Structure formats: structure tokens, C-alpha cells
Amino acid sequence: MTFGNIHCNLYVHFLVIGISRPIRNRVSQNHKMRIIMVLSSMSVMFSTYCTFLLCFLHSLKIGIDGGQHRGMVYMVYGLFAIFISMGWSFITLVLAHCVMLYTVALVKRKWICFVAGLCSLATFKMEPYGSWQAGFVTGSFELQDILFYGGCGFTIMRCMSFALENCEKKDGNYTFIDLLKYNFYLPFFYFGPVMTFDQFHVQANNPNLTRKDRELRDITSKALLHLGAILVVDVFFHFLYILTIPADMRLVKKLSDWSLAGLAYSNLVYDWVKAAVMFGVINTVARLDHLDPPQPPKCITMLYVFSETHFDRGINDWICKYVYDYIGKDHDGIFRELVATICTFAITTLWLGPCELVYIWSFFNCFGLNFELWLAKLFSFPPFSTIEGILSEAMSRRIRSVFNAVNFWQIILYNILALNSLDFAKLVAKRLIVQGFPLSTLSVLFVTYCGVQLVKERERRLALLEEEQALEEKPKID
């Protein structure tokens, strides 16, 4: 079960820096990528140096286990890099929250850890507490807000994961150093993704530093791919004006229905590319450090159901593990599922930063997910289940694709709220549903239906290929 099952499609606009204050001081996404590339490049060089150093020490047999001390070295390096970029006041503020949440973790009560963590997160997402804490950070430069809110927000999420995992630990407690190693791993610190503490702790302390066959070649090829994608995004940003056109409502109103639909779709694709590149670069660095981080987001074109829509698999896994699955249990009961999704989107709203736009976004996405679940329950009972049993697999897929095509545009409409504005979302909905009916509406849905069919066929073939590979890898019994 993934938090795809809760539809936490957290776009990079909001995911990286929150929304409450930074949305009023929005900075070019290209600057974020450049910062990521700088930090990632530093981490790549350090990772290579650290690997050589640890291997050298191990070869001298001085009794130092390289795998055991990797986390400590990464923590020291991360603290040094954060000090250079943000200063001691920022580190002191982050450490204060870490100490507070570590103290709460020693109580080993999940509900206390959750309440303390959410209250700590609220101090960064709500005014005037966010501005008050930001005032402790001296200096002023263009990216300070992004680094401040990104670093603090992800710190709280990591500390909550640490506290909740400590509650599960039967013998003793994890140490404060374990928390610092986890939190100050540089590639994840400012921009995520979030690895849950249990996964990071095991991987960072794994003494086996060997790599699979062709793993380095795969890492290199993906790094080159991400570099090319960054150049493409930069060209799009400067020459195609994908993000600025929706802001000019006088111009947008003159567009045809097809142009308007294409513009809405292009905005989501463009934002997905930015998220995929950002997380892809970070993941490449983490893989060089022998970690297995959450994968980049699934392509927006392949998201035709709410239950699979998410843009950050790290936050997806975090909320799924600690909220959605914890409350929803086996996800069979409609009421329990409703409570689980409401709690999930309540926390998501706090994470994004409470404001009117986020409230609307959360409501519609929560409704869309639950409505999808209710329909799935309804069609699992007779006579619908009986009728589907009579149909061929291909015909059943065609019928489902009709509903999925409608779902796809619901996802588009709900999420351009986050990327653009309420006025632009209203205009797209009005033109495609009311003014454009029936010609524009049905033609757009038909093209979407064909696209969904292609995606479903690709998924079917990939599933068959994975089954074949699993059978081949299964040891043969004589």
C-alpha cells in the first residue's frame, strides 16, 4: 500500500519550501535547481573522497569499520556545509527542535510524539511564529527563505519519524547521535526526499559497500540524463512561458478550448519534470553514498486514478506509514478509510501551510480519492460485479478507461489550483465542461481515453515482464 493510495500529490512548488510564507516570496525554480546541483556536486566529491579514505583505513587494519562510521562522517560534513550556507544561528535553531523532539521520543508514546511534532511543524508553517523564528537567522540573500523553510520543515518530519520509530524499539532507545546522523545528511537536508528513520539507519550503518554489476554505469547514465533535463527545463522556462501565461487572464480568455486544455496539462507536465529532475539529482548522489532513496515521481501522463497520484514518494511513504495505514488498518471499512484520508489531508494541509488555496486543494483531492473508493466498493457488488464478470478483459479495460479519462481531468483541474490560481482553474473548468460542451468536452475526453488505454497497455506489458523476470530469478528446483 502506497500513499499513492491517499493521493498526496505534493508538487515541488509547495513540497520544497512550504506555502504559507514562501508563496508570497516565490523564487525561480531554476535557482532551486542550481542550489541543488551545487550541494549535490559537493556531496559527490565528498562521497568519493570518503569512500577512498575509509577503504584506506580498512586496508591498514586499524580497527575502524568504514561502514559503521560513514554516517558520522556524513553528519560532520553536513553540519559544516549547512554552517557555511546558513550560519550558526540556523543550526542552533534546528538543534533546539531536535533536542525537544528527542526528549519527547524518550517517553515512547506515539500520540505524544505526534502532537509534539505537529506543534513544532506548525511553528514554521503558521504566522507569526514562522517569521519570529526566521528572524533569528542573520544575513539576507535571495535563497535564504527557501533554505530556511525547507531545512526546518524536513527536519521536523525526520525528527517525527525518529521519535515514532523509537517508540517501536523494544530494547532501549536510539541515541541523539543517531538522530543527528539521520537529520544532517546533506543531500536530503534542504529539499528531501524523506527516508523514514528505520530505512536510513539500516542503510547508513551497512558495512557492505560493494556495488551490483553495472550500478555505477547506471548512476552515471542517470546523472547525464538529469543534466540534459535541467537544460531542457531551463529552455522551457525562458522561452515557452508555461508558468507566466496562466497569470495573464486577459490573454488566457482569448485562447481556444484546446489551447487552454493543453496549457493546463503542460503546467503539470512542466512541474513534474522539475520535481523528477530535482529528486533524481538528489537520489543519484544518495546512491553514490550506498543508500536506496525513494524514487522520483511517476509521470503525470500516467496518473489516471487518485489512488496512484503522488509527486514525492518520500512524503508519500512517511504519511502512509505513520498516518494512513496506521489509521486505515486493512482499508476495508469505508468509515475507517474516510477518517484515515481526512487525517492524512489535515496533516498534508499543515505541511503545505494553511491558507485558503490549500484548503480548497485538500478538500477536492480528499473528496476525489474517497469518491473513487466509494465507486470501487459499489461496483464490487452485484449486479455490477456480475456484469463485469461476463465482459472480456479488454472490454472491461475499455469501460474503466472511460471513467479514468474523466478522473485524469479531475486530477488536472484540482492541481492547477496549487500550481496557478483559482481563477485559472475556474476558467479551464468552465470552458471544458460548460461552454465547450459537447464538441470540445468529448473530443478532449476521447484523446485522453486513447492515452489512458496506451498507459494501461504499457503497464500490462511491464507487469508481464516483471513476472517473467521473477520466474527466471527464482532458483530452479531439480
TrEMBL record:
The chain crosses the membrane at residues 35-60, 72-99, 223-244, 334-352, 401-420, 432-452. It comes from the Eukaryota. The keyword Transmembrane applies. Its main location: endoplasmic reticulum. It is a multi-pass membrane protein. Keywords: Acyltransferase, Endoplasmic reticulum, Membrane, Transferase, Transmembrane, Transmembrane helix. It is found in: Endoplasmic reticulum membrane. GO terms for cellular component: endoplasmic reticulum membrane. One of its GO terms (molecular function) is acyltransferase activity. The keyword Transmembrane applies. Belongs to the membrane-bound acyltransferase family. HHAT subfamily. This is Hedgehog acyltransferase like, a isoform X2. It comes from Clupea harengus.
